[in-house]
Each structure stands twice: as structure tokens, then as C-alpha cells.
Amino acid sequence: MKRRDFLISSTIAAATGATSWGQSSHGTELNRTKLDRIAIMTLSFNSVLKSAAHPDDPKRTLDILDAPQMIADRYGVHHVEFQHTHFASTEPAYLKEVRNRLRKAKSSMNQICLEFGPLNISTPDPVLRIETIDLTKRWIDHALELGCPRVMLNHGTLAPEVRPNAIAALRTIGE
Questions:
Q1: Is the pLDDT of residue 165 over 60?
Q2: pLDDT > 90 in the chain, percent
Q3: Is the pLDDT of residue 32 over 60?
Q4: What mean pLDDT value characterizes the chain?
Q5: Contact 63, 5 (CB under 8 A)
Q6: Strands 40-41 and 79-83: what pairing?
Q7: How many domains, the chain?
Q8: Which residues of 117-150 are buried (b: 16+ CB within 10 A; e: fewer)?
Q9: Residues 23, 97: one domain?
Q10: Which residues constitute the domain of residue 109?
Q11: Which single residue of 76, 84, 94, 167 could bond 17 by disulfide (Cβ 3.0 to 4.6 Å)?
């Protein structure tokens, strides 16, 4: 399959829930295979997600705990990529509830995007880099609790003069 065909098919699947692809049971299996290559980011729903920062906004109707089921029902996609800022808590009971909601939706969390604002692995400030490393390690532990196989790091600029800092930070995180 060509990349262009894959992208067009993926877009159609996300927009229609893949209900129009094929009529046979083989077609359904093919649809599932195609949809298994797709994940939807919770960031896409940022404007409608309920948040502590906007408690009275009537446009914010989606609780993050309901996002996996909504994505599965509406788009037929069962892989969800969470922003770390969308978690209301990192307490074990809350993370267990997130995992249960994913399980109930027959979905999985494929990645957690770590966006620590000015903190990143290539920052020239060694104190900020150490803070980034420590936060990343904590989120790797949270990902493990959630059954999530990966986290996405904010790598910063990766300009030539800071690239050695980023490499050293990644090695430290990896250890």
C-alpha cells in the first residue's frame, strides 16, 4: 500500500468510523487492520475537555475518562494518545480508573505526550534538564502503571550547540 493511499484511507476511517469500507466479514477484518494503525490524540479534543482551568465553560463537556469510549464509538479507533496534562491526577487509584475506562472501551493507550513547557532534554540550563529528566522518569513509571508502551519527549530545538545535552539526557533517562 502506498503512503498516499494509507493516509487517505486513514482520514476516511477517522471521519466515518470506517462503516463504509467493505461489506463482507473479510472487509470488516481489513477495516480493523487499517484502524489498528491509527491513534487519536486527546489533544484534538482540548477545546471540549473539562478542565480545572475552565470549570464553568459550557463548551467543555467531555471528561477525559470518557474520551476512550467516545473515540471508540464515534471513530471506531481503539488507540488513544494522551497528553500528560489531561490527567486529573497521578494517584494510583486515578490511574487505575483510566486503565479501567480504556479496558471498558476495548482500547489501549499507545503513548503519553510529555509537554513540560520550557522544560526539555536539550535545554542549556543543567538544572532545568535535571528537572526534565526527573519528570520524564516519573511519567515513564505512570505509563507502566497504565499499560502504555511509550512516552513522547519534548526534545526542544536540538540545535547543534545543545545536541550533546539532549543525548546525555536521553542516556540518563534510558538508564
A1: yes
A2: 70
A3: yes
A4: 87
A5: no
A6: parallel
A7: 2
A8: eebbbbbeeeebbeebbeebeebbebbeebebee
A9: no
A10: 39-174
A11: 76
Unique residue bearing C-alpha cell 499507545: 110
Residue 51 and residue 10 share a domain: no
Same structural domain, 135 and 153: yes
Phi, psi of 140 (to 5 degrees): -65, -40
Same domain, 83 and 11: no
Residue 41, judged by CB atoms within 10 A of its CB (0-12, 13-18, 19+), counts as: middle
pLDDT digits (tens, 9 = 90+) for 75-133: 999 999 999 999 999 999 999 999 999 999 999 999 999 999 889 999 999 999 999 99
The residue whose grid cell reads 480493523 is 32
Cell of 65: 475518562
Three-state SS at 61: coil
Burial of 44 (0-12, 13-18, 19+ CB in 10 A): middle
User: Do both 9 and 65 map to the same domain?
Assistant: no
DSSP 8-state assignment for residue 125: -
pTM, entire model: 0.78
Q: Are residues 33 and 44 in the same domain?
A: no
Contacts of residue 172, Cβ cutoff 8 Å, sequence gap at least 6: 133
**Same domain, residue pair 45 and 122:** yes
Q: What is the pLDDT of residues 40-69, one digit of tens each?
A: 999 999 999 998 888 889 999 999 999 999
Q: Summarize the confidence of residues 143-171 as an average pLDDT.
A: 93
